[in-house]
């Protein structure tokens, strides 16, 4: 009975959805954009800053979803690729600054070129060997900033000038919401607009021929090779797409935190991105979004609970990574397909029960 209550309106809505994949994805992005505007206008500047942080985590995570979830390649070096994008943005927004959209595009292109080199080197590696190679990337790249300290600022890094909201945009938002445009809110808008654009492109790509052949390579390499697919070229292409997303994420990160420094791109960042993809659900863009939300909102929520329970600030802060680790273990044990996999399983169980009841009648 409960399942029928859910499935009936869903089936009714499906009749009005566009028949093409592009149309459905555009509609989903439009709905998400309206939701983003409502959330950003109804929340505090602190939440705006958290949502800006979530946007660059999510951009990198959806790119990693293509590489790991769709093509089956493990990368522990996406933090280093984000560093490439961040430093490219910092250099282009320094003296004689270019417009920030040009800097973001350049960051994606430069990181995609780095992805070609890394992907070509990693295309013959599998499993732990590939993980080890990308781990070396994560460890080595931030050190380049210290070696070339004259250009990249050494340990202190490079300051980044954040873009300011254009007057027409601030006036339009004030007309709609009667709220002033703060710097944090504008950066959140910038990050989420970039994220939605990236998700639209990746959703179409995953539904295309490339998405199908990437899945074929992930599921059975031998069968894919016998079918005539060039595995090396497809692996490099997946790495390039994923690296371009990481470069964009690094560009947004640099503008949000106003700094590109080696301490922001440690191995912890790469591991956090991978855990976000696993917790959310491998191969799902929505899962990457959920995992990114956990990365941003779970630690402060646990810290607040800890201080409310009488722990000191240090003890409460140490509790957050412990709880995150417990959540990761529980999700892996209870839902190997991540949160999105669990939701899909529950949905199928509900619809199957509904069909069985209908057939019995």
From TrEMBL:
UniProt KW Protease keyword: no
Superkingdom assignment: Bacteria
ATP-binding in keyword set: no
Molecular function per GO: branched-chain amino acid transmembrane transporter activity
Pfam family, one: BPD_transp_2
Cellular localisation: Cell membrane
Protein name: Branched-chain amino acid transport system permease protein
A GO term from the CC aspect: plasma membrane
CDD domains: TM_PBP1_LivM_like
InterPro entries: ABC_transp_permease (IPR001851), LivM-like (IPR043428)
Transmembrane annotation, as ranges: none
Topology term for the membrane: Multi-pass membrane protein
Keywords annotated in UniProt: Cell membrane, Membrane, Transmembrane, Transmembrane helix
Subcellular location, principal: membrane
